[in-house]
Each structure stands twice: as structure tokens, then as C-alpha cells.
Amino acid sequence: MAKRASGKASATSAIGPDGLSRTIPERIARRVWVAAGGRCTICNSYLLDEEYTGQAVMVGQLAHIVGWSTAPGSPRGGDPLHADQRNLADNLMLLCHDQHKVIDDKSLWDTYDPTTLRAMKRTHEQRIRKVTALKEERKTTVLRVVGNLHGRPVELDDTRVIAALLERDRFPDWTLRGADEFEVDLRAVPGEDPGSPHYWTAAKAHLEDRLEHLRTQVRKGQVTHLSVFALARIPVLILLGTMLDETLPTQLYPKRRDGSEGWGWSPDAPEVEFRFDRVRIGTDRTKVAVILSVSGTVDPERLGEAVGDSCTLYELKPDGITPAPTLISNESTLDLFSQTWRELLATIEVEHPGARDIAVFPAVPAAAAVSMGRHLMRVAHPPLRIFDRMQDFDTYQFTISTACADEQKGDPR
Ligand SMILES: [Zn+2]
Fold first, then answer.
1. Tens digits of per-residue pLDDT, 299-343?
2. What is the Å distance from ligand 1's center to 224 Cα?
3. Are residues 380 and 405 in the same domain?
4. What are the phi and psi torsion angles at 361 (to 5°)?
5. Based on the domain organization, do 88 and 148 belong to the same domain?
6. 61 C-alpha vs ligand 1 centroid, how far in Å?
7. Residue among 175, 186, 227, 181 at smallest CA distance from 209
């Protein structure tokens, strides 16, 4: 029966614009509350307690999509839905007080027509079902490594991370978030745009510090799966790869290059294979350099003084197609790239046993850079001396070495 709402909403009443409430059978009300996850279908606020005071007062309301009666004052009441069906779960949505007032306001009935409201209910309930289905083992710890790119700051808010993880049926754990906005935020490190030596040293120190925090959390058992969202200068990303624990299950998420600002892989993109060749044999077998022409082409003539006649030069590139920034768009292509990189490292290990380091000139996408670092084995492979292209000079400059601090001290160069 309709009765005047006393101001105390109950979980089983539906309140109309006339202020009268109708009792909905308990089993139907429960269906609507559970399907909505106890959250407002429109604004997603949690309705089991009051947000600001934290009091356990039921603030949710059951709202009719098609009004309870066919009378002219009943919102959407003229819809052909049969009267028997109007108090069933399919015709009821869970709303907070404010949004309920909005959809039932006479001036907005056309905006919130039954089709629109049904679509909102469907979308909300499907999302609640999907998200609440994720069990504890689908939890993943988020690691964002964000730096400037030639003066342009990278943005990556929580919403984009969550969207990317949900695509893979995962939900985020933010344990590693520090005082900065991101888990590793290099945007305030000075000297990035000219690429000054101080920048690379400071970035390396900052990375080491934050990754030590990650290792502690792994030891404590707090982190069991890692999701990496990294966008910074390529040498920093290779270094990051060397610092990630190889036994920790890790998923890399690249930034999509389709203008969507989204992160994640494109499984339908074509698979690409890679090859490596020896471009030149040097006079000193202990001197080795590698160019990686993947996202663009590295011209062997422009490597500068670092690579003289004494140095043997290898090139890794896509097999049969032209290098391009979008080349590595799915994980199987990244695996093929990483496999070729490992084969190249194994070849260098055999052919250049006395090499103190490997000079690398990488034109690779971000995920490939991280993967390069991950596959470098400190015990078997010499450290990488990473060069980066100078924006304005069309030549390459030494940036950073993957060697530990004590290894670097003994370096005569
Ligand atoms: Zn709401």
C-alpha cells in the first residue's frame, strides 16, 4: 500500500515523486540491492552507510524505471509495461536520494526515458558482477614508472590503469604508491630535456631506491604479481628491466598508439619476427656494439666516436619489414623480439668472451626496452652501456650503464 514516507527510507520501499512509498517484497528488493552491489546505479556511491557521517543509515532508494501507476503524475507511467510487472526487479533500480530526485523530476522525463534507464541499470549491474567476480588471486600490484619525454610530461591516472587491468580480469593493489603521484615519478628530476649526465645518474638512483621498496614488499609476501606501466626515456626503461625480479610474475602494459590514451596490447595486430646480423667485424674482439632498429632505423654511420673500427657491430631488426613505432603491438611479437635479443646476447657471450660491456643504440618501443633489461643476466652477460639519440644533433650520446656502482668504478672509460 502507498503511504507517506516518514523520512526513514527502508531497504524494501520504493519512493515516488509524490513522497509516497510503496513496499516492495523483500525477495525482489534484495535482488535489486545485490545486483547493484549496494551502489547507486548512476553515481556509484555506496549506499549502506552515509558517506560523510559514516553512520550506518540506509541511504539507497529503489526507483521505478516505469512509474508505479499509469496516472499522469507517475514518471514514465505511460509506458506500455503491464501493471503486474512494474514492481519486479527488472523495473527497479537502486539509486541514491539525489539521483532519484533527478530522474523523477518532470522536466527530465524525456532525458531519463525507460530505454535510457534500462541501459544504465544493465551496464551498472554487469560491471558490478564482473568486478565482484575477481577473486583475491587476481590481485596485481601496480608499478608505474613515469618520466618526461623530451620535456613533455607523461600522464597516467588511476582510471586508465584500472581499465587496462579489468581487460585482463585483474584488480589493482596500490601498495607501492609513494608520496609522489606515481610509484616511480621521475618528472621532477632535472636535466631531462638536454639529457644531462646528472639526469641519468639521478634517475638511476631514484629507480634503485623505489625498486628496493618493491623488493622488500616481495620478500614480505605483499607482492605476488606485478603490472608495469612504464613510459620514460628508453635508457631508463632498459635499466628498470634489469632491476625487476625475474621470478616475480610480471605483466607489461604499453601505452596504445591509437590516440585513445589507453594502455594495453592489441592481440589482433599482426605478429612480427626479428633477426640479427653482424654488420661489421672489428679489430678488437672485446669491443662490441649493438644497434636495435625496431621503432625506427639507427644509422650505423651516426654512432659517433664510441664505435670505432676496433668494434664489432651487430644489428637487431624486424625480419622483412620496415621498422615502425607500432611494430610491437601484441605480446607474441614482444616475445619474438625478446627471443631474438636473448639469442644475440648468447652469440656475444660466445664470440666476444673478454668484452667488458656492450654499447647499445636502441630505437625500440617502451615495452621492448623493459624486456631488454629483464633478459640481461648479470652473471653471463657484460653490462650494457646505453646510448640515446640527441634530439637536435642527429648523433648519439652515452646516458647510463646497467653496471652496478662498484662495477663502474673499475671502468677506465
Ligand atoms: Zn547517486
1. 988 888 778 889 999 999 999 999 999 999 999 999 999 999 999
2. 36
3. yes
4. -120, 90
5. no
6. 10
7. 186
